[in-house]
Q: What sequence folds into this?
């Protein structure tokens, strides 16, 4: 070997272990053996179990942030869905409440219309249905305005009834509406008949509502047979109201020693406050009035009753005339 040439190979003293090819061959054979042995005899199962048990806490710790992030996103998403569901439920409940209120109102209106139709079945006079729009603006009168007028054929003096009885009388007519004066107005008077005794009289409006009533049966003798609870109906003697329409109920009778007449307070059967649906009747014709008067029996004594004299008292407006 020349002196100038260096030997770059490691000395044999430092050469230890097999060669890389041998190691590759050994590890390949070992891997193949372990795979066959594990597939056939499950020899690596205890090792795998031990390694899994050792790595389980590490995996749990490493998966926690991922689970927290996923759960947080799901929580906020669920919260948003819950809020949206709450808003939808509240909106649905509001709509259902509104519908329930409308159903209750329709049921009340249906009941009122049924009662009105039942009353109309007993009435021979033709009429038309109407709706109360609002109360009249005059604070010194008791009047309401309905949605029927001259175009619908309403004429002044037409009786107006609701489901319970006589409400009032048309006193002013416009093209599309009419003004109805209620029976409790101080200018209203209506001939009535006591349904228990058959005695006739005249009931006047009493807006002051003394003793809880809204009408007063005036010019009745102190010895007249009138009791609390007596029902009053129209007598038909004025030629306006058909006989037999319910008007009022007697609620108080006061007999005074200083007067020959009793103070008789009555409560109207019709709904004077809050009436919504009414029926406008046509006034009785002269022919119908003659038939009604023919059906009324004359007094046995042949004398005119004081109630008939009361109709002709001076200063009193004729009943039923607007």
A:
């Amino acid at each position: 070997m020349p002196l100038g040439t260096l030997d770059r190979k490691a000395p044999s003293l430092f050469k230890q272990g097999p060669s890389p090819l041998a190691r590759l061959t050994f590890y390949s054979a070992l891997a193949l053996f372990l795979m066959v042995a594990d597939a056939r005899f499950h020899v690596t199962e205890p090792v795998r179990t031990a390694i899994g048990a050792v790595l389980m806490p590490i995996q749990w710790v490493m998966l926690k942030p991922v689970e927290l992030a996923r759960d947080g996103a799901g929580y906020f998403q669920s919260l948003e869905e819950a809020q949206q569901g709450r808003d939808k439920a509240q909106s649905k409940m509001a709509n259902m409440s509104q519908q329930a209120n409308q159903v209750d109102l329709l049921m009340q209106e249906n009941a009122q219309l049924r009662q009105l139709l039942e009353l109309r079945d007993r009435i021979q006079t033709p009429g038309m249905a109407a709706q109360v729009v609002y109360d009249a603006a005059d604070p010194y009168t008791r009047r309401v305005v309905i949605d029927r007028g001259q175009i619908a054929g309403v004429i002044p003096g037409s009786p107006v009834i609701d489901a319970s009885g006589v409400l009032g009388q048309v006193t002013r007519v416009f093209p599309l509406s009419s003004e109805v004066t209620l029976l409790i107005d101080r200018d209203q008077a209506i001939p009535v008949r006591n349904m228990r005794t058959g005695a006739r009289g005249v009931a006047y409006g009493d807006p002051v509502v003394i003793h809880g009533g809204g009408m007063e049966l005036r010019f009745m003798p102190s010895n007249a047979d009138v009791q609390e609870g007596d029902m009053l109906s129209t007598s038909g003697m004025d030629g306006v109201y058909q006989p037999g329409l319910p008007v009022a109920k007697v609620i108080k009778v006061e007999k005074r020693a200083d007067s020959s007449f009793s103070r008789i307070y009555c409560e109207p059967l019709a709904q004077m406050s809050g009436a919504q649906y009414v029926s406008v009747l046509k006034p009785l014709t002269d022919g119908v009035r003659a038939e009604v008067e023919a059906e009324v029996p004359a007094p046995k004594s042949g004398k005119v009753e004081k109630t008939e004299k009361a109709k002709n008292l001076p200063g009193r407006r004729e009943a039923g005339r607007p």
Summary: The first strand starts at residue 127 and ends at 135. The CA atoms of residues 10 and 292 lie 149 Å apart. Residues 45-121 form the longest helix (77 residues).
